[in-house]
Every structure is written in structure tokens, then in C-alpha cells.
Amino acid sequence: MQKTVKNRTFRIVLLSLVTKKRITLSIAAPQLHPNQLPFKWYRYIDDIWGLWLQGEEEFLVFVNVMNSLYPGVLEFTYELSDSEVSFLDLRIKLEGGVLTTDLYTKPSNLNLYLHYDSYHSNCTKKGIVFSQALRVKMICSDPEKTQQHFGELRSNFQDRGYPSSIVDPACERVQNLSREDLLAGKGRRTRKPVRAPLVVTRNPRLPNLRSIINKYFHILQLSPNLMNVLPSPPQVIYRQPRNLQSHLVRAKLVENVKNVHKGCYKTHFKNCVTCNVLQETDRVYSNATGETFTIFSTITCTSEGVVYLINCKDCGKQYVGETGGELRVRHRGHRQEIRKGNTPLGQHFQICKNFDLIGLQSLVNASKQKREAIELRWIYRLGSLSPVGINVKDVRTVS
After folding, report:
1. Both 271 and 330 in a single domain?
2. 331 and 231 fall within a common domain
3. How confident is the model at residue 11 (pLDDT cuts 50, 70, 90)?
4. Nearest to 322 by CA among 364, 284, 274, 292
5. What is the pTM of this model?
6. Cα(36)–Cα(30) distance, integer angstroms
7. Amino acid 5: pLDDT
8. Residue 367 phi/psi, 5° resolution?
9. Domain boundary among 58, 80, 102
């Protein structure tokens, strides 16, 4: 049960099921006579609306019995009226023996619809206006009050920055719909053929992808192979970009890891050649610029995906490299280069014999392109480009 609290949707469903079970058992309590039960009752999670045909005293007895069944767990409050009562966003009235409905809003309601200047797409904003207009149309049984609420809706959306060119067409479109058809619901619709999805991250600078695809899709249809793969234009689906919440909140709980030291350390494996030259430190010093940089990764000779520094102890020149494999395997390759002298690094250490090795940054599971980009940044930071250093890469490609 501990995991259920992480899922808000499941938590609401669970609450609804438990509440329904308890309410059903309460209404079927043996203390209550069939004449002491509601004529009709409808429930939405923990809100109930019903019709009571007996007097007020009998109703109070019914409520007291209900509250006595689950003391401290389930307690009912009520609103009783001969003429009208509110339920969720409905105001239900009894007029001339007929039940009528009107829109109900709490006095504390601030109408904080999504602001028009938000990062959301225009489709989302138009959908909000249309859905709210549709809600008014379906709730209000009096056409005059429907028009009154449409006017209030226009004013509320204009206060949130929505232009009339979006609000008015949505209201006019809903006004032309039949309330009876809306309340009857949609019949079974013919299922549309599934289209290939084109998933892109939402960005306001993006052009209208749907119009571009529809404009040039006929070019893809010229290829028989593509015609079989994409018989119809793909469906553009926008993925929500990372917002402030996604940067600050993590769904996965991070375990508290104690005694994790950042820096470069030896493993002290027996006969490890790399550990003999590996310098244990949490900072790296640039011999060219005199700057000192902090190492924020934990790196050993067995670390994979590493940007590293080779420091010549004789002349002070430095070399920055990267590897996707283990650091000790890359060090073994450099030793072979020194023996052969077929690289600038190998040629340098055929003259200078002493060097040490420092891990600068761990890039586990990073692509080679990303490792090379980080490598170039370290070359720029440490000033290890030839002739001051040993690197021969063009630092101008650093981004």
C-alpha cells in the first residue's frame, strides 16, 4: 500500500471505491427501515445528491445513523432544502414540479484559467475555452441563463488574456449545438485508422508542422516503399517540455548515499599499472593558466566513460583525452603509443619519461559525440592545446 500514495489517479480511484462501499453498507444498515431511506441518490466520490420524500426529522435520524456507523472515519454533512440545493458545479432547483439545473460556482472561485501567455499550444488554449462553453451549455437548462453565463465566460477569459478571436467562435460553435444531443452522449463512432505518430517536444518557435506535412506529403507518396509505410500523414503529437517542476521534483526517491567522496582515487588493485601513475586528488591544476578546477565526479582506474588528464612531470605540458571504456584500458593504449611513438602524445613521452594521470569527469553512458565535446571544453579550460600543451585538436569547435 505504500506505493499507492505516489499515484494520484490510483489514490482517487481507491478513495472512491472505499467511500462507495461504506456508503452502500451504511444505507443498507439494519437500523434503517426501508421508509427511512432516500428515494433516489447519486454519488461522485464523497459527494452525494438525493431525493428525500419523508420529513426533516426522519432525515436527521437517517444522517445520525449514517454518522454512527464509521465514527472518526466517515462523517456526513448535509444541505437540505425544499426548493434548491448545490451539488458539485450544479445548482438543482425544483420549479413547478420539474427539476432544473443551473451553473453553480463557489464564492471563493477565482476563475484562474490557464493564462493565454502560457507556454501551452494554441490547440490547448482553444480546447479550454470550448470545453468550458460546452460545460455551460450542458449544465444550464434555461436558455436565458445559458446566454448570461456565456457573457460571464467571455469576460473571465478576456481577463486571462484570451482574445475575442478565440473566445467568440468557441461560444458560437457551442450555441449551435443541441443540448439534448450533448446530454445523450456520443454514440459508438467508427474507429479511425491508426496513423504513425510524430512526437516532438513542444516549442513556441516551431512552425506549423501539420500544415508542412500536409503540404509536402504527396512527395513521400511518390515512393512505393514509403507509401506502404506511411499510407496517411503522420499524426503530430507534442511532448511537454521540461518545466520548473520537472527540474526540481523527482518521482524516484534518491537513496541517501553516505561517504561518497568526489575526485580521482586509486583502487589499489594488485599489480595495477594505472594506479601507479594515478594521482589521488579532488582538484586539477592548469600549468598553462594557473587556474584550479574541482573534480565533481568519483573516478578510479576502472571507471568507464571518462575525460582524463595526463600531466608531464618533467616539462609541465598537459594532455586531455576521453574514452568510452575503462580508464586503465585507455592508459594501456597510451603506453603502446609511447613505445611506438606514432602519436603526438607518444612522441612527447619518448623524450619526457615521467607523467601522472588524473580523471577529470565521469560520463557514464554518454555518446562519443558528447564525450568529445566535454573533452574539448577541458582542453580550453586547461590550455592544453599545442604548443603550450600536447593536444592538437582545434579548440574553436568547443560549444
Report:
1. yes
2. no
3. very low
4. 364
5. 0.54
6. 11
7. 39
8. -70, 160
9. 80
What nine digits make up the cell of 21? Answer: 462501499
Q: Is the pLDDT of residue 397 over 50?
A: no
| pLDDT band, residue 257 (cuts 50/70/90) | low
Count Cβ atoms within 10 A of the Cβ of residue 170 and give its class: 0-12 exposed, 13-18 middle, 19 or more buried.
Answer: buried
Question: Three-state DSSP class for 95?
Answer: strand
Same domain flag for 375 and 275? yes
Q: Which of 59, 91, 89 is nearest to 76 (CA)?
A: 59
DSSP assigned state of 190: P
Average pLDDT, the chain: 84
Shortest CA distance to 325 belongs to which of 335, 337, 333?
333
Bridging pattern class, strands 292-294 and 235-239: unpaired
Residue 321 in domain: yes
Do 211 and 335 lie in one domain? The reply is no
Q: Which residue type sits at 156? A: N
29 falls in which pLDDT band (50, 70, 90)? low
Helix (H) or strand (E) holding 284: strand 283-285
* Domain extent at residue 202: 197-239
| Closest-CA residue to 82 (of 93, 70, 91) | 93
**How long, in residues, is the chain?**
399
At residue 35, the 3 state secondary structure works out as: helix
Q: Give the three cell numbers for residue 72.
A: 472518526
Return the CA Rg of the chain. Answer: 35
Do residues 274 and 383 both lie within one domain? yes
What are the pLDDT digits (tens) for 91-102?
888 888 888 999
- 399's grid cell: 560549444
Structure confidence at residue 130 (pLDDT): 95
| pLDDT at residue number 27 | 56
Residues 6 and 63 in one domain: yes
Number of folded domains that form the chain: 3
Query: Cell 588528464 belongs to which residue?
Result: 309
Residues 204 and 317 both lie in one domain: no
Q: Is residue 125 part of a domain?
A: no
